[in-house]
Amino acid sequence: MDFTFGSLGFDCKTSSVAYQHDVSDAQAKFADLAADAYLVSIWATPDPDAGVTLPELVRRLEDRLVDVGEFEKRLLRTGYRHAHTSTYTNQFTVLHASWFPIDRVPRVRGFDPGVTNVRYTMQLDPTQALPVEDVRAILERVFRS
After folding, report:
1. Which of 57, 101, 104, 113 has the fewest CB atoms within 10 Å, counting from its CB?
2. Domain of residue 123, residue span
3. Which residues, listed in sequence order, are joined to residue 10 by a DSSP beta bridge?
4. Is 98:44 a contact under the CB 8 Å cutoff?
5. pLDDT tens digits, residue range 135-144?
6. Are 41 and 19 in contact (CB under 8 A)?
7. For residue 130, is it within any domain?
């Protein structure tokens, strides 16, 4: 999970193709969690005129977080390095974000012993996304606490 709050868990995936994400079997372990978990599917496109760079998004998040240390650890695990911010020059604009309950997210549920490091592309069904009102209710629950 990228973010947790009590029993809530959020895993965020970003892609340049709507509702499509490349994942590994290790990344798909989020579906085994007992938490009230969601995959947040973010569709973004390059936008050199009005878009935002990754370092800018990181800074915006850090400005809002209580526990920046944990966020930094997770950034490091993804390969992000503050020392390389000058190399993250691409600008993106978010076109759409959808929330999916984990049990509605397609995944490979098993494979033969000895098979490791499986990677696959999942195609989410937009009709399985939560309605905006449900997402608002979840966020209100988080920010009310």
Report:
1. 113
2. 3-48+90-144
3. 3, 38
4. no
5. 999 888 877 7
6. yes
7. yes
Mapping DSSP onto H, E and C, the string for 20-64 reads EEEEECCHHHHHHCCCEEEEEEEEEEECCCCCEEHHHHHHHHHHH
Phi and psi of 19, rounded to 5°? 65, 20
Q: How many angstroms separate the CA atoms of 115 and 59, rounded? A: 39
CATH of the domain at 121: 3.40.1350
Share of the chain above pLDDT 70, in %: 94
Number of domains into which the chain is organized: 1
- List, for residues 86-119, the tens digit of each pLDDT value: 999 999 999 999 999 998 999 888 889 998 888 9
Rounded distance between C-alpha atoms, residue 119 and residue 72, angstroms? 26
The answer to the question of residue 72 being in a domain is no
Rounded to two decimals, what is the model's pTM? 0.79
Q: How far apart are CA 38 and CA 129, in angstroms?
A: 10
In a domain? residue 75: no
Helix (H, G, I), strand (E, B) or coil at 102: helix
DSSP state for residue 27 in the 8-state scheme: G
